[in-house]
Amino acid sequence: MNARREFFKAAGLAGGAVAAAAVSRVALAALPEAVSQSSANTMAPLVPDTGRPYNPVVTLNGWTLPWRMRQGVKEFHLVAEPVVREMAPGFKAHLWGYNGQSPGPTIEVVEGDRVRIFVTNRLPEHTSVHWHGQRLPNGMDGVSGLTQRSIQPGKTFVYEFEARRPGTFMYHPHADEMTQMAMGMMGMWITHPKAPHPWIAEVQRDFCFLLNAYDIDPGSYTPKIMTMLDFNLWSWNSRVFPGIDALNVRQHDKVRIRVGNLTMTNHPIHLHGHEFQVTGTDGGPTPPGARWSEVTTDVAVGQMRQIEFVADEPGDWAFHCHKSHHTMNAMGHNVPTLIGVDHSGLAKQISQLIPDYMVMGERGMADMGEMEMPIPDNTAPMMTGQGPFGGVEMGGMFSVLKVRKDQPHGNYQDPGWYQHPPGSVAYEWTGALAPASRSQSGGTAAMGANNMPAAEVEVQVRKPPSHKAGGHGEH
Ligand SMILES: [Cu+2]
Fold first, then answer.
1. How close are the terminal C-alpha atoms of the chain, in Å?
2. What's the pTM?
3. CATH class in words for 234-404
4. Residue 271 alpha carbon to ligand 1 centre in Å
Protein backbone atom coordinates (compact mmCIF):
# COMPACT_ATOMS: atom_id res chain seq x y z
CA MET A 1 0.00 0.00 0.00
CA ASN A 2 1.40 3.33 -1.02
CA ALA A 3 0.53 5.18 2.15
CA ARG A 4 2.34 2.54 4.15
CA ARG A 5 5.42 2.63 1.98
CA GLU A 6 5.51 6.39 2.31
CA PHE A 7 5.08 5.98 6.02
CA PHE A 8 8.02 3.63 6.36
CA LYS A 9 10.11 6.04 4.35
CA ALA A 10 9.06 8.92 6.57
CA ALA A 11 9.59 6.95 9.74
CA GLY A 12 13.02 5.88 8.57
CA LEU A 13 14.12 9.48 8.41
CA ALA A 14 13.70 9.83 12.13
CA GLY A 15 15.11 6.41 12.91
CA GLY A 16 11.91 4.80 14.16
CA ALA A 17 10.54 1.36 13.60
CA VAL A 18 6.98 0.36 12.87
CA ALA A 19 5.49 -3.09 12.70
CA ALA A 20 2.18 -4.45 11.59
CA ALA A 21 0.48 -6.21 14.46
CA ALA A 22 0.87 -9.95 14.39
CA VAL A 23 -2.67 -10.88 13.44
CA SER A 24 -3.68 -13.19 10.67
CA ARG A 25 -4.34 -11.27 7.47
CA VAL A 26 -7.08 -13.76 6.68
CA ALA A 27 -8.81 -13.24 9.99
CA LEU A 28 -8.77 -9.49 9.57
CA ALA A 29 -9.12 -9.35 5.80
CA ALA A 30 -11.75 -6.64 6.04
CA LEU A 31 -9.77 -4.55 8.52
CA PRO A 32 -7.01 -2.14 7.61
CA GLU A 33 -3.65 -3.20 9.02
CA ALA A 34 -3.05 -2.04 12.59
CA VAL A 35 0.27 -0.25 12.27
CA SER A 36 2.21 0.01 15.51
CA GLN A 37 5.00 2.39 16.49
CA SER A 38 7.89 1.36 18.74
CA SER A 39 9.77 4.67 18.92
CA ALA A 40 9.10 7.83 20.92
CA ASN A 41 11.00 9.97 18.39
CA THR A 42 9.43 12.76 16.39
CA MET A 43 8.61 11.17 13.04
CA ALA A 44 8.94 13.06 9.77
CA PRO A 45 5.63 14.34 8.38
CA LEU A 46 3.55 11.71 6.59
CA VAL A 47 3.14 13.16 3.12
CA PRO A 48 -0.16 11.90 1.69
CA ASP A 49 0.04 9.94 -1.52
CA THR A 50 -3.56 8.86 -1.63
CA GLY A 51 -6.60 11.06 -1.20
CA ARG A 52 -6.50 14.83 -1.50
CA PRO A 53 -3.17 16.58 -0.93
CA TYR A 54 -2.41 18.67 2.14
CA ASN A 55 0.56 20.04 4.04
CA PRO A 56 1.08 17.47 6.84
CA VAL A 57 1.76 18.24 10.49
CA VAL A 58 4.69 17.09 12.61
CA THR A 59 3.63 15.50 15.91
CA LEU A 60 6.16 16.26 18.63
CA ASN A 61 7.60 12.91 19.80
CA GLY A 62 4.84 11.26 17.85
CA TRP A 63 3.63 10.09 14.48
CA THR A 64 0.71 10.08 12.07
CA LEU A 65 -1.40 6.98 11.51
CA PRO A 66 -1.24 5.61 7.94
CA TRP A 67 -4.58 4.87 6.27
CA ARG A 68 -5.90 3.03 3.28
CA MET A 69 -8.41 4.30 0.74
CA ARG A 70 -11.29 1.90 0.15
CA GLN A 71 -13.99 2.96 -2.28
CA GLY A 72 -13.43 6.60 -1.55
CA VAL A 73 -13.37 6.16 2.25
CA LYS A 74 -10.27 6.81 4.34
CA GLU A 75 -9.88 3.83 6.67
CA PHE A 76 -7.82 3.85 9.87
CA HIS A 77 -7.28 1.15 12.49
CA LEU A 78 -6.73 2.22 16.09
CA VAL A 79 -5.81 -0.40 18.68
CA ALA A 80 -6.37 0.53 22.33
CA GLU A 81 -3.74 -1.36 24.33
CA PRO A 82 -1.20 -1.27 27.18
CA VAL A 83 2.06 0.33 26.02
CA VAL A 84 5.49 1.09 27.39
CA ARG A 85 6.25 4.77 26.81
CA GLU A 86 9.76 6.11 27.21
CA MET A 87 8.94 9.47 28.86
CA ALA A 88 12.59 10.59 28.85
CA PRO A 89 15.81 8.73 28.10
CA GLY A 90 16.15 6.05 30.79
CA PHE A 91 12.66 6.55 32.19
CA LYS A 92 9.85 4.27 31.05
CA ALA A 93 6.22 4.32 32.08
CA HIS A 94 3.65 1.56 31.76
CA LEU A 95 0.73 3.38 30.17
CA TRP A 96 -2.31 2.65 28.07
CA GLY A 97 -2.42 4.09 24.57
CA TYR A 98 -3.03 3.32 20.95
CA ASN A 99 -0.95 1.41 18.40
CA GLY A 100 2.11 1.00 20.58
CA GLN A 101 2.43 4.52 21.99
CA SER A 102 0.88 7.10 24.29
CA PRO A 103 -0.45 9.40 23.03
CA GLY A 104 -1.91 7.55 20.11
CA PRO A 105 -0.96 8.48 16.55
CA THR A 106 -2.22 11.71 15.04
CA ILE A 107 -5.04 11.24 12.55
CA GLU A 108 -4.85 13.60 9.57
CA VAL A 109 -7.67 14.00 7.08
CA VAL A 110 -9.05 16.64 4.72
CA GLU A 111 -12.27 18.61 5.14
CA GLY A 112 -15.02 16.66 3.39
CA ASP A 113 -13.25 13.29 3.70
CA ARG A 114 -15.42 10.30 4.50
CA VAL A 115 -13.58 8.61 7.38
CA ARG A 116 -13.98 5.09 8.80
CA ILE A 117 -12.07 4.23 11.98
CA PHE A 118 -11.86 0.67 13.25
CA VAL A 119 -11.16 0.59 17.00
CA THR A 120 -9.92 -2.69 18.49
CA ASN A 121 -9.88 -2.99 22.27
CA ARG A 122 -6.92 -4.90 23.72
CA LEU A 123 -7.30 -3.39 27.18
CA PRO A 124 -8.46 -5.42 30.19
CA GLU A 125 -11.63 -3.31 30.38
CA HIS A 126 -14.18 -1.77 28.05
CA THR A 127 -13.48 1.50 26.24
CA SER A 128 -14.87 3.87 23.58
CA VAL A 129 -13.46 6.74 21.51
CA HIS A 130 -14.87 10.24 21.62
CA TRP A 131 -13.92 12.54 18.72
CA HIS A 132 -13.53 15.83 20.61
CA GLY A 133 -14.73 18.86 18.64
CA GLN A 134 -16.12 17.09 15.58
CA ARG A 135 -19.47 17.64 13.92
CA LEU A 136 -20.81 14.11 13.45
CA PRO A 137 -23.89 11.95 13.85
CA ASN A 138 -24.73 11.64 17.54
CA GLY A 139 -24.26 7.86 17.50
CA MET A 140 -20.62 8.31 16.39
CA ASP A 141 -19.72 10.61 19.30
CA GLY A 142 -18.26 7.77 21.37
CA VAL A 143 -19.88 8.33 24.78
CA SER A 144 -20.28 4.84 26.18
CA GLY A 145 -23.70 4.23 27.64
CA LEU A 146 -25.12 7.45 26.14
CA THR A 147 -24.51 7.11 22.40
CA GLN A 148 -23.19 3.54 22.02
CA ARG A 149 -22.51 0.30 23.83
CA SER A 150 -18.94 0.26 25.19
CA ILE A 151 -16.31 -1.71 23.28
CA GLN A 152 -15.62 -4.83 25.36
CA PRO A 153 -12.11 -6.32 25.56
CA GLY A 154 -11.30 -8.17 22.35
CA LYS A 155 -14.01 -6.43 20.33
CA THR A 156 -13.65 -4.07 17.37
CA PHE A 157 -16.09 -1.21 16.72
CA VAL A 158 -16.41 0.96 13.62
CA TYR A 159 -16.87 4.73 13.65
CA GLU A 160 -17.77 6.43 10.40
CA PHE A 161 -18.44 10.08 9.63
CA GLU A 162 -17.51 12.95 7.36
CA ALA A 163 -14.79 15.36 8.54
CA ARG A 164 -17.05 18.37 8.13
CA ARG A 165 -14.96 21.30 9.25
CA PRO A 166 -11.23 22.03 9.19
CA GLY A 167 -9.40 22.38 12.48
CA THR A 168 -7.48 20.73 15.30
CA PHE A 169 -9.31 18.16 17.35
CA MET A 170 -8.51 15.41 19.85
CA TYR A 171 -9.65 11.89 20.58
CA HIS A 172 -9.88 10.09 23.90
CA PRO A 173 -12.02 7.44 25.63
CA HIS A 174 -15.42 8.34 27.02
CA ALA A 175 -15.57 5.20 29.19
CA ASP A 176 -13.91 4.97 32.61
CA GLU A 177 -12.37 8.26 31.59
CA MET A 178 -10.60 8.98 34.84
CA THR A 179 -8.59 5.77 34.57
CA GLN A 180 -8.07 5.72 30.85
CA MET A 181 -6.96 9.32 30.45
CA ALA A 182 -4.76 9.14 33.57
CA MET A 183 -3.15 6.13 31.87
CA GLY A 184 -2.36 8.08 28.70
CA MET A 185 -5.18 7.32 26.24
CA MET A 186 -5.49 10.29 23.90
CA GLY A 187 -4.45 11.52 20.50
CA MET A 188 -4.73 14.43 18.07
CA TRP A 189 -6.88 14.79 15.00
CA ILE A 190 -6.12 17.34 12.29
CA THR A 191 -8.65 18.16 9.57
CA HIS A 192 -6.87 20.15 6.84
CA PRO A 193 -8.90 22.61 4.74
CA LYS A 194 -9.87 21.25 1.32
CA ALA A 195 -9.12 24.58 -0.42
CA PRO A 196 -7.34 27.82 0.50
CA HIS A 197 -9.28 29.22 3.47
CA PRO A 198 -9.33 32.96 4.22
CA TRP A 199 -8.73 32.35 7.94
CA ILE A 200 -6.21 29.49 7.63
CA ALA A 201 -2.70 30.58 6.64
CA GLU A 202 -0.27 28.51 4.62
CA VAL A 203 2.67 27.69 6.87
CA GLN A 204 6.08 26.13 6.37
CA ARG A 205 6.07 24.23 9.69
CA ASP A 206 3.03 22.83 11.42
CA PHE A 207 3.61 21.17 14.81
CA CYS A 208 1.11 19.59 17.19
CA PHE A 209 1.16 18.01 20.63
CA LEU A 210 -1.03 17.28 23.65
CA LEU A 211 -0.49 18.41 27.22
CA ASN A 212 -0.83 15.50 29.62
CA ALA A 213 0.06 14.71 33.22
CA TYR A 214 0.90 11.62 35.25
CA ASP A 215 1.41 10.70 38.87
CA ILE A 216 4.11 8.03 38.96
CA ASP A 217 5.95 7.47 42.24
CA PRO A 218 9.73 7.67 41.88
CA GLY A 219 11.04 4.20 41.15
CA SER A 220 7.71 2.81 39.92
CA TYR A 221 6.24 2.41 36.44
CA THR A 222 2.47 2.78 36.56
CA PRO A 223 0.52 6.02 37.03
CA LYS A 224 -1.71 6.43 40.06
CA ILE A 225 -5.16 6.97 38.60
CA MET A 226 -6.93 8.55 41.59
CA THR A 227 -4.80 11.70 41.48
CA MET A 228 -6.77 14.84 40.70
CA LEU A 229 -4.30 17.70 41.18
CA ASP A 230 -1.08 16.43 42.66
CA PHE A 231 0.55 15.10 39.50
CA ASN A 232 4.32 14.82 39.50
CA LEU A 233 4.98 14.47 35.76
CA TRP A 234 3.84 17.28 33.48
CA SER A 235 4.35 16.14 29.93
CA TRP A 236 3.97 17.02 26.27
CA ASN A 237 2.86 13.96 24.37
CA SER A 238 3.82 11.79 27.36
CA ARG A 239 7.41 13.09 27.31
CA VAL A 240 9.18 15.25 29.92
CA PHE A 241 12.21 17.49 29.44
CA PRO A 242 14.91 16.63 28.48
CA GLY A 243 12.95 13.98 26.57
CA ILE A 244 10.91 16.47 24.51
CA ASP A 245 12.34 17.05 21.04
CA ALA A 246 13.21 20.59 19.93
CA LEU A 247 11.03 22.35 17.37
CA ASN A 248 13.54 22.96 14.59
CA VAL A 249 12.65 25.59 12.00
CA ARG A 250 14.25 27.67 9.27
CA GLN A 251 14.55 31.41 9.89
CA HIS A 252 11.59 33.33 8.38
CA ASP A 253 9.44 30.19 8.25
CA LYS A 254 5.83 30.78 9.18
CA VAL A 255 5.24 28.35 12.04
CA ARG A 256 2.00 26.94 13.44
CA ILE A 257 1.88 25.05 16.73
CA ARG A 258 -1.32 23.29 17.83
CA VAL A 259 -1.54 22.50 21.55
CA GLY A 260 -4.38 20.51 23.13
CA ASN A 261 -4.87 20.16 26.88
CA LEU A 262 -6.13 16.87 28.31
CA THR A 263 -4.76 17.38 31.83
CA MET A 264 -6.86 18.54 34.80
CA THR A 265 -5.41 22.04 35.05
CA ASN A 266 -4.62 24.96 32.74
CA HIS A 267 -1.21 25.55 31.17
CA PRO A 268 0.02 29.03 30.15
CA ILE A 269 2.21 28.13 27.19
CA HIS A 270 5.00 30.65 26.72
CA LEU A 271 7.37 31.26 23.81
CA HIS A 272 10.56 33.30 24.08
CA GLY A 273 11.85 35.73 21.46
CA HIS A 274 8.71 36.03 19.31
CA GLU A 275 5.12 37.21 19.55
CA PHE A 276 2.46 34.92 18.23
CA GLN A 277 -1.25 35.09 17.56
CA VAL A 278 -3.86 32.52 18.50
CA THR A 279 -5.28 31.65 15.09
CA GLY A 280 -7.63 28.88 16.08
CA THR A 281 -9.28 26.84 18.82
CA ASP A 282 -11.06 23.51 18.70
CA GLY A 283 -14.04 25.60 17.62
CA GLY A 284 -12.23 26.38 14.37
CA PRO A 285 -10.12 29.20 12.91
CA THR A 286 -10.27 32.55 14.73
CA PRO A 287 -11.43 35.47 12.54
CA PRO A 288 -8.33 37.63 11.84
CA GLY A 289 -10.03 40.73 13.30
CA ALA A 290 -10.40 38.97 16.66
CA ARG A 291 -6.72 38.07 17.05
CA TRP A 292 -4.12 39.87 19.12
CA SER A 293 -0.46 39.29 19.82
CA GLU A 294 0.73 37.37 22.87
CA VAL A 295 3.84 35.67 24.16
CA THR A 296 1.87 33.38 26.48
CA THR A 297 -1.47 31.75 25.85
CA ASP A 298 -3.40 29.88 28.48
CA VAL A 299 -4.67 26.52 27.33
CA ALA A 300 -7.49 25.54 29.66
CA VAL A 301 -8.66 22.00 30.34
CA GLY A 302 -10.24 20.37 27.31
CA GLN A 303 -9.15 23.20 25.01
CA MET A 304 -6.93 23.51 21.96
CA ARG A 305 -4.98 26.61 21.05
CA GLN A 306 -3.34 27.04 17.68
CA ILE A 307 -0.60 29.68 17.60
CA GLU A 308 1.25 31.18 14.62
CA PHE A 309 4.29 33.39 14.16
CA VAL A 310 7.12 34.10 11.76
CA ALA A 311 10.33 32.65 13.20
CA ASP A 312 12.50 35.61 12.33
CA GLU A 313 14.85 35.65 15.33
CA PRO A 314 17.66 33.09 15.10
CA GLY A 315 18.60 31.27 18.29
CA ASP A 316 17.56 28.63 20.80
CA TRP A 317 14.34 29.96 22.29
CA ALA A 318 12.79 28.40 25.38
CA PHE A 319 9.21 27.21 24.86
CA HIS A 320 7.43 26.02 27.99
CA CYS A 321 4.51 26.05 30.39
CA HIS A 322 4.83 29.16 32.56
CA LYS A 323 3.74 27.40 35.77
CA SER A 324 7.13 26.84 37.32
CA HIS A 325 6.07 23.58 38.94
CA HIS A 326 5.20 22.24 35.53
CA THR A 327 8.80 22.54 34.38
CA MET A 328 9.92 20.09 37.05
CA ASN A 329 9.78 16.32 37.22
CA ALA A 330 8.92 13.98 40.10
CA MET A 331 10.16 14.71 43.65
CA GLY A 332 9.26 18.38 43.42
CA HIS A 333 6.69 17.94 46.16
CA ASN A 334 6.80 17.83 49.95
CA VAL A 335 10.15 19.53 50.12
CA PRO A 336 10.34 22.37 52.66
CA THR A 337 11.96 25.60 51.53
CA LEU A 338 15.37 25.66 53.14
CA ILE A 339 16.86 28.72 51.47
CA GLY A 340 19.02 30.56 53.96
CA VAL A 341 18.97 27.78 56.54
CA ASP A 342 22.45 26.92 57.71
CA HIS A 343 22.87 23.18 57.83
CA SER A 344 26.59 23.04 58.34
CA GLY A 345 26.46 21.44 61.77
CA LEU A 346 23.41 19.33 61.12
CA ALA A 347 24.65 17.71 57.94
CA LYS A 348 27.84 16.64 59.70
CA GLN A 349 25.91 15.04 62.52
CA ILE A 350 23.47 13.25 60.27
CA SER A 351 26.16 12.02 57.92
CA GLN A 352 27.65 10.11 60.80
CA LEU A 353 24.42 8.12 60.86
CA ILE A 354 23.63 8.19 57.13
CA PRO A 355 26.84 8.40 55.10
CA ASP A 356 25.21 9.73 51.88
CA TYR A 357 23.11 12.36 53.63
CA MET A 358 22.86 15.60 51.73
CA VAL A 359 21.00 18.78 52.49
CA MET A 360 18.76 19.85 49.66
CA GLY A 361 18.07 23.40 48.77
CA GLU A 362 19.92 25.57 51.27
CA ARG A 363 21.00 27.91 48.46
CA GLY A 364 17.86 27.43 46.36
CA MET A 365 17.07 24.30 44.42
CA ALA A 366 19.52 24.81 41.57
CA ASP A 367 22.01 22.48 43.24
CA MET A 368 19.52 19.72 42.55
CA GLY A 369 20.02 20.10 38.85
CA GLU A 370 23.77 19.89 39.09
CA MET A 371 24.50 17.27 41.65
CA GLU A 372 24.71 13.64 40.76
CA MET A 373 22.13 12.66 43.29
CA PRO A 374 21.23 9.01 43.74
CA ILE A 375 17.60 8.59 42.63
CA PRO A 376 15.52 5.41 42.48
CA ASP A 377 15.79 3.41 39.26
CA ASN A 378 13.37 4.51 36.54
CA THR A 379 12.91 8.07 37.76
CA ALA A 380 13.27 11.22 35.72
CA PRO A 381 15.55 13.70 37.51
CA MET A 382 13.58 16.57 39.04
CA MET A 383 15.40 19.29 37.11
CA THR A 384 18.07 18.57 34.60
CA GLY A 385 19.27 19.02 31.03
CA GLN A 386 22.62 20.35 29.85
CA GLY A 387 22.77 23.37 27.57
CA PRO A 388 25.88 24.86 25.97
CA PHE A 389 26.39 27.06 29.05
CA GLY A 390 25.62 24.55 31.80
CA GLY A 391 22.60 23.05 33.53
CA VAL A 392 19.20 24.14 32.21
CA GLU A 393 17.53 23.02 35.48
CA MET A 394 14.23 22.18 33.91
CA GLY A 395 11.93 19.20 33.62
CA GLY A 396 8.37 18.58 32.56
CA MET A 397 6.76 20.87 30.01
CA PHE A 398 9.83 22.48 28.48
CA SER A 399 11.36 22.42 25.02
CA VAL A 400 13.34 24.67 22.68
CA LEU A 401 12.40 26.39 19.44
CA LYS A 402 15.55 26.31 17.31
CA VAL A 403 15.55 28.96 14.59
CA ARG A 404 18.39 28.67 12.06
CA LYS A 405 19.24 30.56 8.89
CA ASP A 406 20.61 27.43 7.25
CA GLN A 407 18.01 24.86 8.40
CA PRO A 408 17.02 23.28 5.06
CA HIS A 409 13.42 23.71 3.90
CA GLY A 410 11.24 20.91 5.22
CA ASN A 411 14.07 19.45 7.30
CA TYR A 412 13.40 18.74 10.99
CA GLN A 413 16.83 17.49 12.10
CA ASP A 414 18.18 19.00 15.30
CA PRO A 415 20.82 21.56 14.23
CA GLY A 416 22.68 21.44 17.57
CA TRP A 417 23.18 24.45 19.83
CA TYR A 418 22.99 27.98 18.47
CA GLN A 419 26.32 29.64 17.64
CA HIS A 420 25.90 33.14 19.04
CA PRO A 421 27.45 35.99 17.04
CA PRO A 422 30.44 37.45 18.92
CA GLY A 423 29.40 40.02 21.51
CA SER A 424 25.75 38.92 21.67
CA VAL A 425 25.79 36.85 24.89
CA ALA A 426 25.25 38.23 28.39
CA TYR A 427 28.65 38.52 30.02
CA GLU A 428 30.23 38.96 33.41
CA TRP A 429 31.12 42.46 34.58
CA THR A 430 34.69 42.43 35.84
CA GLY A 431 35.15 46.14 36.61
CA ALA A 432 34.75 47.83 39.97
CA LEU A 433 31.34 47.71 41.65
CA ALA A 434 30.05 51.08 42.86
CA PRO A 435 27.98 50.97 46.07
CA ALA A 436 24.27 51.03 45.28
CA SER A 437 22.64 54.31 46.26
CA ARG A 438 19.45 53.88 48.21
CA SER A 439 16.39 56.03 47.59
CA GLN A 440 15.53 58.15 50.65
CA SER A 441 12.01 58.84 49.43
CA GLY A 442 9.22 57.62 51.66
CA GLY A 443 6.89 57.43 48.68
CA THR A 444 3.42 58.83 48.55
CA ALA A 445 0.88 57.78 51.11
CA ALA A 446 -2.26 56.85 49.24
CA MET A 447 -3.88 55.35 52.32
CA GLY A 448 -2.09 57.41 54.93
CA ALA A 449 0.39 54.61 55.56
CA ASN A 450 3.18 57.17 56.03
CA ASN A 451 1.54 58.38 59.19
CA MET A 452 1.68 54.95 60.77
CA PRO A 453 4.58 54.11 63.07
CA ALA A 454 7.02 51.95 61.14
CA ALA A 455 6.83 48.63 62.90
CA GLU A 456 9.37 46.35 61.32
CA VAL A 457 7.96 42.97 60.52
CA GLU A 458 9.98 40.28 58.88
CA VAL A 459 8.49 37.00 57.80
CA GLN A 460 10.09 33.71 56.87
CA VAL A 461 8.04 31.92 54.28
CA ARG A 462 8.33 28.20 54.64
CA LYS A 463 6.30 25.54 52.89
CA PRO A 464 4.57 23.12 55.28
CA PRO A 465 6.43 19.81 55.35
CA SER A 466 3.53 17.88 53.84
CA HIS A 467 0.44 18.86 51.90
CA LYS A 468 -0.66 15.39 50.93
CA ALA A 469 -3.37 15.35 53.56
CA GLY A 470 -5.70 17.58 51.59
CA GLY A 471 -6.75 21.19 51.63
CA HIS A 472 -4.08 21.72 49.05
CA GLY A 473 -4.85 23.59 45.91
CA GLU A 474 -3.39 23.35 42.49
CA HIS A 475 0.22 24.38 42.01
CU1 LIG B 1 1.55 23.75 32.98
1. 49
2. 0.81
3. mainly beta
4. 13
